[in-house]
Amino acid sequence: MREPEAFAPDRRLFGLCLFTLGWSVLVLQAGGFTTSIRAGMAFLDWPLSNGSVNPPGWLTEIDKFAEHSHRLAAMVLGLLSIVIAVAHGFRETRRTVRLAAYALVGLVVFQGVLGGLRVLLDKLNIGGDGNFKAAAFAVGHAVNAQLTLALLAFIALAHTMAWHQARHSAPRSLFRAGAFAAGLTLSVIVIGAVMRQGHFTAWVSAASDGLFIPSIGTGVVWWVNLLHRGGALLAGASVLFFAVQLARHGFPLLRWASLVALVFLQVLLGILSIQLPLNPHVRTVHLVVGAALFSSLCAAVILARRSTEEPTA
Q1: Domain boundaries, the chain
Q2: What does pTM read for this prediction?
């Protein structure tokens, strides 16, 4: 059932969500760069850094700067999510959107807990040879960041004219195609998180096999890299198919063209990551663009689902 909407989009809530969305990208970039240079354990404690909010050396040493700036930016994101929840509690009349704003706080808090456990359960803190616990929480931290960004994108979308004007008579197959693409993309994100957090990245490919088959790594490392690359091709193809269907059913140019552009940009960045294995910035941007693609895709899928609903009498 479609919720009643007696009011025009709330520009203030939209502006707040849009600003927070931009800030969350900075948080993701900082976290991705921290992982890319392997600076996640620059500080052995949490939530403080060496027992301080202003630890010595964090402005001059790159590993400490990466990790501490990520923590500070994440703290600001937590405060912004609380502001969003409170503002929606007072100004938003739609129950679904209000609940989404409250859930955002939960995801951000959960994200902080995952990040903290990744540090506190690292082998540098608990000893031992293996580091499975820390790696598992690090993967969860990486994946939850993508889900948080997607939820925030949905909340922002709910305050746009595109949401209020979604009155197409789209077939349910459109939503199913989008949901399949989103699920496949999320699976690629999970595998990519395992690669990055487990340091399973086999960046080099055999010249005779092009850019697809990893030429280094054995066992799990080789298979994880192959699954990520193969999954990325399948996910990219499914997103492009969904974009074509959006265009066929009259969705705005920006809605489907942005998906096409992000897919090709992400593939290019993936290739550059293989070609430039020592450049942490390329891998970080690859992560950020992947998040932008997943969030944009989720927003488009939600609009497609909304467009298949029958308007209420």
Answers
A1: 1-165, 169-313
A2: 0.90
